[in-house]
Amino acid sequence: MLVTVLLLLSSLEIVSQNKFITGIIMMDGRPVKGVAVYNSLGNDDVTDDFGRYSLPLAGCSSCRPGYQLTIYTNHKEYGSTQQTHTINNDYKFSFNITRGITMIYGQVQSTGINPGSLSGIEVKIMAGKIDTKPVVTNSFGEFKIPVPSALFEKDNAVRLLARDPSGRYKPLRAEPELYTIDAFNIIKMEPGTAKKVSVDAFIRTQVCVKQGDLVTIEAEGHIRVGAMVGTSDPDGRNTGVFGLSLESYNIVSTFNHAALMYRLAGEREWNLAGKRKQFAADKDGCIEFQINDNIQDDNVGSYSVSITVQRG
Question: Which pTM does this prediction carry?
Fold first, then answer.
């Protein structure tokens, strides 16, 4: 029985891989030649003299009757459209387009240890007389930028600039890259460089995270924390000289004395960071640090703390 089910699922996937969405694209009741038709999977076609297109469904195992598929079109003179179509049994979809506005479609994705789509990224066009306001990627990392079609009479490509307002990600290249206007464009970004702060007492940093972000804290350095204790690194000390207990001098009694601690702004409890800590943020907020020492006036030195945030 299990083998039969697996074979059935496999055959359904093979069928969808070999299917095409076909149809005719028209404007004012007339077929339109030369319309680029594509989807987010990288499949594309161009309408012929009779406005006909045949869009492959390769890479889409879910593309069967009842599935909603988004189809993008672009034409230099008539602009761009975005159509959402529920696939029917005959896999046919004909529709009309209008003239005037070209839409640049795409998605921003991350590289690194947790690749995926990036929401909240600002994307804008960087090209001569084209001056667009940034649009912000949605929860799926997708964006669309409307531009008057007349601006693309000679060109079929634009330079897109992506920027992370939080500073957690940066473009793979310093200069805006060239992207075509008749494709679903993928912009890649990589984790930004680590932010560094010096910690010798309480500090609220400018490093702000969102729920689900992966945060890495790495610390080094030494602080002299009093004659009866000596020098401590970010992991802290569990006793003073002659094995003296330091619990009464701690802000958090269960952590080592002078250990590096962290929390997100608005939280009451401190967490142990030590020399290295990695965690997934369970809320939005800016990172705060503190030294586990309730008498800091006689301390000398500081910890050098590096913070790297990777969007979840």
Answer: 0.47
